[in-house]
TrEMBL record:
This is Arylamine N-acetyltransferase. Signal peptide: none annotated. It comes from the Bacteria. Belongs to the arylamine N-acetyltransferase family. It holds the Pfam family Acetyltransf_2. Coiled coil: none annotated. PANTHER family: ARYLAMINE N-ACETYLTRANSFERASE 4-RELATED, N-HYDROXYARYLAMINE O-ACETYLTRANSFERASE. One of its GO terms (molecular function) is acetyltransferase activity.
Length: 259
């Protein structure tokens, strides 16, 4: 792990000691610089769950990825810096389907001074800007929204957020069972190939900004600033590629940038 290259990629220049302050700063800076995106799935490029492959894509090529990639590599960084971290599996919630199978989502738990923190740089607007302590039924709020961790059943905990209708909705359920990166290989393959996966249905790229969030899909560019949303139509693939480069710095297929 080339820590210097990783930290340069996420534009982090702070302390490296494995403290809560360092974790919080790394977490937020990661969200500000590395987008959640599924573009390789729509360009028939295989996603390989190997640390060196993830490093090449996210750090060297300055791309983004989905949970297996973003949290997978962030785990490697935290582990290298001396944090006590564990990979965990989550089952994400979809309104029309319920909870997805085990290994549907990869997240991280970091233990600092005897307290466990849920760490997740790959769950978009359904996760806070900073890690959340594993304390049940404690509402936590930042400028991105309100969140809490609650007991789901005898085996699972759930992270919940307040949705756009003002209701509490689960993001995913999880246990603290330690997992290996290879444990997620089958579900990673499913999300790359199955028409039942959210990730194969539409292209998406999303990034936290100091003012809110920018999200690009096949049909719209949505810019949220201080709670106000501006949407721009995406009429075709050329417009998509132009927005992708101008807003996220990602250039696919050698397309020329248009300002």
């Amino acid at each position: 792990m080339n820590v210097d290259a990783y930290l340069e990629r996420i534009q982090y220049t702070g302390q490296r000691e494995p403290t809560l302050a360092t974790l919080q700063a790394l977490h937020h800076q990661h969200q500000l610089t590395v987008p959640i995106e599924n573009l390789d799935i729509h360009n028939n490029r295989e996603i390989r769950l190997l640390p060196e492959a993830l490093f090449d894509k996210l750090i060297t090529q300055k791309r983004g990825g989905f949970c297996y990639e973003l949290n997978g590599l962030f785990y490697e960084l935290l582990n290298t810096l001396g944090f006590d971290v564990t990979r965990i599996s989550g089952c994400t919630y979809e309104t029309d389907k319920g909870f997805n199978p085990e290994f549907d989502h990869l997240a991280i738990v970091a233990r600092i001074d005897g307290i466990d923190w849920l760490v997740d740089v790959a769950f978009g607007k359904r996760f806070p800007l900073y890690p959340i302590p594993l304390r049940l039924n404690q509402i936590q709020e930042d400028k991105s929204g309100c969140y809490l961790i609650a007991e789901h059943d005898a085996d699972y905990m759930a992270i919940r957020h307040v949705n756009e209708q003002g209701d509490w909705e689960p993001g995913y359920i999880f246990t603290l069972t330690p997992r290996e990166l290879s444990d997620f290989a089958d579900m990673c393959r499913f999300h790359q190939t199955s028409s039942d996966s959210f990730f194969t249905r539409n292209k998406m790229c999303s990034l936290v900004t100091p003012e809110g969030r920018i999200t690009l899909t096949d049909t719209a560019l949505k810019v949220t600033e201080y709670g106000y949303v501006t949407e721009t139509n995406v009429p075709d693939s050329q417009a998509f590629d132009t927005f992708l480069y101008n807003y996220f710095g990602i250039r696919l297929n050698g397309m020329p940038a248009m300002v």
